[in-house]
Specification:
The protein has a five-stranded parallel beta sheet, sandwiched between helices. The chain is 48% helix and 12% strand. The protein has four domains: 4-130, Response regulator (Rossmann fold); 143-312, Rossmann fold (3-Layer(aba) Sandwich), CATH 3.40.50.300; 316-390, Orthogonal Bundle (Helicase, Ruva Protein, domain 3); 392-448, Orthogonal Bundle (Arc Repressor Mutant, subunit A). With 448 residues, it is an alpha/beta fold. It has 19 helices and twelve strands.
């Protein structure tokens, strides 16, 4: 990795030796011959590293260090001096110097320190970028759905996110429970820490116990080394227990103990380990019915159900389907007009047992089948294609004097709005078009 470096020393020969050595590693290097010139040079550009002598006429290396750190905290400073003292070293490090080199020093040592700084800076930038991408991806603004039921759910998320309360997300399979859990984490004070998820339904009882709480070496056959569990990995952050209704009663007891005490013991271990974790659980099971049949512990239910959030099934907010379709088309780098409005209308009438996940899979399948062509009803899955075939047709008598298409469109829109009680999303659904298309038509007709 290449960096931009400023070298400051009143010994001109030293400046040029360092510049030549660093330029061999492809770094961009500028030099200044005293502290005042160095500060002026730094003020006019951005540098990753500043290498400055300590003793110089005018402003010394400590003054340069203070100016650099006040102007650009992420820029690292290496101090050089031929007059080493413990007091100077302590002061330099206290004021934020990365390191302190005593002249004469090996140039390889300096180049290694520069390399370490740049690698650390690269990792920091990548980490910040990753966190920003995650924050954007899992922000509420990027979760699709403007319907009333979804808006109410968003309000619940925003209310609980900043608290440390345990959350239980309820909803059918495919509704996006993990997406909501991620959004809660990203909006919480714990967002800088880990979000650790575990699918409780995907593991056997023995494996799940080890995954959640960890194990010591030799705890069971195959436990060849110590392993930290998901609760330990999530320390300071959030653990997401997906499909929590599928765990056995034996694991439920141990999970309840961790939630109550904020402590755990690894499988085969004796040490009690404290954990600071926020718990978000999710399930598509009827936990109330499971409590009656004694397959889910009542005390664990109340420990998890501190703040319940219900995600509605897609069939209960069909007006969001056009927006979801547009999102999935964009995700697959396809234009919104790729899909025939009649297909959108059919998709809005389907009952969606698999919810949003099923919709996404069907859109992706139809994109592949359509190739460069428009997505039409011919490539709809059979269970949805029948909806198109059974849609009623409208017979319109055209008088000898002719008819105005614009007037027909206005009448259809007005009738749809009237039937939908003024709700434009429902009116668009009745007309078999997207809400955006409805707005576009209304704007065009108002201009005509």
């Amino acid at each position: 990795m290449f960096g931009k470096i400023l070298v400051i020393d009143n010994e001109k020969r030293m400046c040029h030796v360092i510049k030549a050595a660093l330029e061999l590693d492809k770094h961009d290097v500028e030099i200044a011959y005293d502290g005042d010139a160095g500060i002026r040079t730094f003020a006019n550009s951005e540098f990753d590293v500043v290498i400055t002598d300590l003793k110089m006429p005018g402003k010394d290396g400590i003054a340069v260090l203070e100016y650099v750190k006040n102007s650009s905290a992420e820029t690292e400073v290496i101090l050089m001096t031929a007059y080493a003292s413990a007091q100077n070293a302590v002061e330099a490090m206290r004021k934020g110097a990365y390191d302190y080199l005593i002249k004469p020093f090996d140039m390889i040592e300096l180049k290694l320190k520069v390399k370490q700084i740049l690698e650390k800076r690269k990792l920091t930038v990548e980490n910040v970028n990753l966190k920003n991408r995650l924050r954007d991806k899992f922000s509420l603004e990027n979760i699709i759905g403007q319907s009333e039921s979804m808006q109410k759910m968003y309000q619940m998320v925003e209310k609980v996110a900043t608290r440390d309360a345990t959350v239980l997300i309820r909803g059918e399979s495919g509704t996006g429970k993990e997406l909501i859990a991620q959004a809660i984490h990203q909006l919480s004070p714990r967002s800088e820490k880990a979000f650790i998820g575990v699918n409780c339904a995907a593991l056997t009882e023995t494996l799940l116990e080890s995954e959640l709480f960890g194990h010591e070496k030799g705890a069971f056959t195959g436990a060849e080394k110590q392993k930290r569990g998901r609760f330990e990995l999530a320390d300071g952050g959030t653990i997401f227990l997906d499909e929590v209704g599928d765990i056995s009663t034996a694991i439920q007891v141990k999970l309840l103990r961790v939630l109550q005490s904020k402590e755990l013991m690894r499988v085969g271990g004796e040490q009690i380990i404290p954990v600071d974790v926020r718990t978000i659980a999710a399930t598509n099971r009827n936990l109330e019915q499971m409590m009656k049949s004694e397959t889910f512990r009542e005390d664990l239910y109340y420990r998890l159900n501190v703040f319940p959030i219900f995600i509605p099934p897609l069939r209960d907010h069909r007006e969001d389907i056009p927006e979801l379709i547009a999102h999935f088309l964009k995700k697959n780098e396809q234009p919104e007009h790729k899909i025939d409005p009649r297909v959108v209308s059919a998709l809005m009438k389907y009952h969606w047992p698999g919810n949003i996940r099923e919709l996404e899979n069907i859109i992706e399948r139809m994109i592949i089948l359509a190739g460069d062509d428009t997505i039409t009803s011919e490539i709809l899955p059979p269970q949805i294609r029948g909806i198109v075939d059974t849609q009623p047709s409208i017979s319109l008598e055209i008088p000898d004097s002719g008819i105005s298409i614009a007037k027909v469109e206005r009448d259809l829109i007005n009738n749809a709005l009237k039937k939908a009680g003024g709700n434009k999303s429902k009116a668009a659904q009745l007309l078999g078009i997207t809400r955006r298309k409805l707005y576009s038509m209304m704007e065009r007709l108002n201009r005509e």
